[in-house]
Amino acid sequence: MMICPFCGFKNRPGAFFCDDCGQALHEDPGTMTMPTRQIELVTSEINAKSSWGTASFDAQSTVMLHIRDVREPVQIRPVARMTIGRSDAATETYPDLDLTPYGAMEKGVSRIHAALLRTEESLTLVDLGSSNGTHLNGQRLIAEQPRVVRDGDEIRFGKLVAHIYFQTR
User: Fold this and answer.
1) Do 59 and 77 meet the contact criterion of CB atoms below 8 Å apart?
2) Residue 45 gets which letter from DSSP?
3) CA-closest candidate to residue 6, choices 19, 26, 23
């Protein structure tokens, strides 16, 4: 078991990055080498199925956001631009999708953290300069640069983790 020096999360042995906060668990993971394990190739086991979900998102689609450790998913119908964050009455900040009920403050979600942008055929995610970053499938987004979201992707707002699924009528 590898304990993250940044957040204290207990990671599986051999992990290079923390499953909770995404930080590198070694000084320089780029310099580490692991030998490639030789496997027996059986042609009947080769599967051409793509592991990525669809990026197609039409006008009839809705989103189910499954937040880690929350029983019921959040259903949303994205508009052209939907802000995501946590509400704050003191600054009169009210994002379109308020993550406050899911521990947003404790998990480092900014008041206006990110946005979902809906186009005619796809959905994109953009970090809006958040303090603790937005990650899409483990990759930190560069602020103000939209990335296409696919069905089944993992999104992390600070330390709040969610999976996004598309539903088409």
Assistant:
1) no
2) G
3) 23
The string over 151-163, giving b where at least 16 C-beta atoms fall within 10 Å of a residue's C-beta and e elsewhere, is: bebebbbbbbbbe
Tokens found for residue 78: 């994205």
pTM above 0.85, yes or no: no
Apex CA 78: angle with CA 51 and CA 140, to 5°? 50
CA 128 from chain center: how many Å? 14
Task: Report phi then psi at 135, rounded to 5.
Answer: -120, 140
Strands 2-3 and 134-136, bridge-based pairing: unpaired
Q: What is the pLDDT of residues 32-57, one digit of tens each?
A: 444 434 445 444 443 433 346 777 87
In whole angstroms, what is the distance from residue 18 CA to residue 28 CA?
14
